[in-house]
Design brief:
CATH class of the largest domain: Alpha Beta
Largest sheet: 7 strands, mixed
Number of helices: 14
Oligomer: single chain
Strand content: 15-25%
CATH architecture of the largest domain: 3-Layer(aba) Sandwich
Helix content: 40-55%
Strand order of the largest sheet: 7-6-8-9-10-11-12
Order of helices and strands: HHEHEHEHEEHEHEHEHHEHEHEHHE
């Protein structure tokens, strides 16, 4: 038994980065802020894979909730008008670090604090003024970007057009504020280059089931059209509701993350969110160990995965060619 414990200790020492006893014993306070996710889902035992990945990686760095880190969780409930006050409320609690999901939340936090370290998942942080450069962010923010620019948006339009040869237009679901950001500009340009007209489906100031239903009333049944969903965090938190509502309307739909496809959506071309959340957890650990956010590069992914739900495609009467399926990184039967 002693030998087994000794061998296990050696194995752990090989994978866990070194950390001083003083750093481990000092209790840290972290705030987690989501635009719409339920706070009960932002845990190590979450039903959402990327949250589980975040806490698993944080634990690997020997930061464990209830032992040497306390975590306070906040949600904007999908009400974009609340984000400014939410950011101010979080900062007023003076946590040691803030983890934020989504560009709007990250922007609001940046406005109200220049001192508290912030690790965010966002779109283009340089274009939105959150960081100076990706390599040397400056200030108090770092994190991971999901925005690979025009090429990513163009690839999504290309895949959707390949799947639906008679595609005449795409209804694009996004908040009003999205079209004012760099990502919205990129979507319009990518659609123009692909020769696919887009019809904007604005959501107003609150992202909810009711807002989705109001937007979808403009989609006529049996039109040769499709839906694309923006990569805003509000959609991700409501992915099951959104997938069900789109299924009821029956247009083919392309989603921004694989999580939607796992929930029954048709297809996605995206980064792996679990990978990004693991990376963010390592950035959190770096900051707790004394490194400054200004010196931690913002991660911009270079790997993207195609996921397709065969059952949903069959229900929609879509013909999936062998070559299309062969390119998929994940095929859900």
């Amino acid at each position: 038994m002693k030998r087994r414990a000794f061998v296990l200790g050696l194995a752990l020492a090989a994978v866990v980065p070194p950390v001083s006893a003083q750093q481990l014993l000092k209790l840290k306070r972290m705030a987690m802020v989501s635009p719409a996710a339920q706070t009960a889902d932002m845990t190590a035992n979450s039903n959402t894979g990327y949250y589980r990945a975040f806490f698993q990686e944080l634990s690997r760095w020997v930061y464990i909730e209830g032992q040497n880190i306390n975590i306070e969780r906040y949600s904007g409930g999908g009400e974009t008008a609340r984000y400014a006050q939410l950011a101010a409320d979080v900062v007023a609690t003076h946590p040691d670090l803030i983890v934020a999901t989504g560009t709007p939340i990250a922007m609001q936090l940046k406005r109200v604090t220049q001192n508290i370290p912030i690790v965010s998942l966002f779109g283009d942080p340089v274009a939105m003024g959150i960081v100076s450069t990706l390599g040397r962010p400056g200030g108090n923010s770092t994190g991971a970007s999901i925005d690979a620019g025009l090429e990513l948006h163009g690839k999504r339009f290309q895949l959707l057009a390949e799947l639906i040869p008679n595609l005449s237009r795409v209804h694009y679901l996004a908040s009003e504020a999205y079209w004012e950001r760099a990502a919205g500009v990129g979507v319009r340009l990518a659609a123009r280059q692909a020769g696919i007209p887009i019809v904007e489906l604005p959501l107003g100031r609150t992202v909810s089931q009711e807002a989705y239903q109001d937007s979808f009333r403009s989609i006529q049944r049996n039109q040769p059209t499709a839906v694309m969903v923006s990569d805003e965090g509000e959609h991700l938190a409501l992915r099951h509701t959104l997938v069900e509502l789109i299924a009821a309307q029956r247009p083919p739909a392309a989603y921004p993350f694989r999580d939607f496809v796992e929930a029954g959506g048709l297809m996605s071309y995206s980064v792996d969110l679990s990978d990004l959340f693991r990376l963010m957890a390592s950035q959190v650990a770096d900051i707790f160990r004394g490194r400054k956010p200004a010196e931690i590069p913002v991660h911009q992914p270079t790997k993207f995965e195609l996921a397709i739900n065969v059952r949903t495609a069959t229900a929609l009467g879509l013909d999936l060619s062998p070559s299309f399926l062969a390119r998929a990184d994940q095929v859900i039967e």
